[in-house]
Amino acid sequence: MNVIRAAVAAVILAAMMNPGLAADPPEPLVFKGHTKAVTVVAWAADGKTVATAGNDRTIRLWNAATGRQTASLPGIAREGYGGPVVAFTADLKVVAINYWGEIAIRTVADDKVLARIDPILDRGQRSAFRPDVFAMAFSPDGRRLVTGGSVAAVGGPHGLPGGIVIVWNAETGKVLHQSDTLSTAASSVAWSADGKRFAAGTNGAGGELPEAGEVRVWDAETGKVLHSFKVKPEVEPGEWASASDVAFSPDGKQVATPVTAGSRGAPAGLLIDDTGASVRVWDLGTGKATQPVKGLKASVGRVVFSPDGRRLGTAGSDKVVRVWDVETGQELAALPCSDRVGSVTFSPDGNSLAAGCMDGSVQIWMVPAAR
Known about the structure:
- The protein is mainly beta.
- The protein has a domain at 49-303: YVTN repeat-like/Quinoprotein amine dehydrogenase (Methylamine Dehydrogenase, Chain H, 7 Propeller), CATH 2.130.10.
- 4% of the residues lie in helices and 48% in strands.
- It has 1 helix and 29 strands.
- The chain has one helix at residues 3-17, and strands at 29-31, 38-43, 49-54, 59-63, 69-73, 85-88, 94-98, 103-107, 113-117, 132-138, 144-154, 161-169, 175-182, 186-191, 197-202, 214-219, 225-230, 239-243, 247-248, 254-263, 276-283, 289-296, 300-305, 311-316, 320-325, 331-336, 341-346, 352-357, 362-366.
- The strands form 7 sheets. Strands 18, 19, 20, 21 and 22 form a 5-stranded antiparallel sheet that branches. Strands 1-29-28-27 form a 4-stranded antiparallel sheet.
- The two termini are 24 Å apart.
- The relative contact order is 0.12.
């Protein structure tokens, strides 16, 4: 164990031995190199390397133990408004990069383009809204890529663009499955660990014709919808409720999404007493939902299961990364971040949690186990 990790471990041990220090969070290991928001953080399976991507249009590789940058891939997307959408394969050897409806699949080591995908299936449609891809994820074997976004056509009764989820052959760019019946844009996608299912979460809609965001789960072999869950049973005119992220439990038996709900007139990022932020977890065997995380007063944008499935990591607009016990809902840790968080992920051994921040930093903490 290196000096930095030893110091972090000592802080945690001291807190465990001295109840008066229990509320004191451990100091993070901080990676600095990105000049704009870090939107993706991924660990290699062996836990030794961390890959990051950000709105500065670079991909960087880091030594997870020391925070030393070991490689950089600049210019991954052309200059323009916003940043790229990025997804890595599990071994961090291949990356998919989308910027304004142009997907390139490239090797990380030598920046070789393996395939190009045009995710906009019908560019002839006329609409006030531009179709795009907002989320991507490789299947565990790296052979398929699922994308979630919007189509250039109005969706539900609210008149916002409808959502679309597509599974592609990552080698040929061929469409394997397509679902374009989501009422609002798909802002998140994920695969189960066995690659047999994939899921997406949608934004929902507010205004006079509101519609709650939803989570859908598909069979990856047939493309059949297996489950469809509304994040809130009903939303009244002026309300909104969204599913900004989606995650499978490691055993594939549960799916989780952060739910942020609010009302018209509430300041951006602030939630009123009768709504609030929570995490909803569905049992895919019974369809029943639980809320192990609830009552937060700031929006939750990211959620991730720990490798043992017993904890959840969440991050939101309050600049705090939190760790929760899935079964009891107990908050195990509250880890202050230097800025709002764009990505959060556990290490493969579950002992650490990494967060990519809007100020360009990456912070890694050692975290407690479920009790």
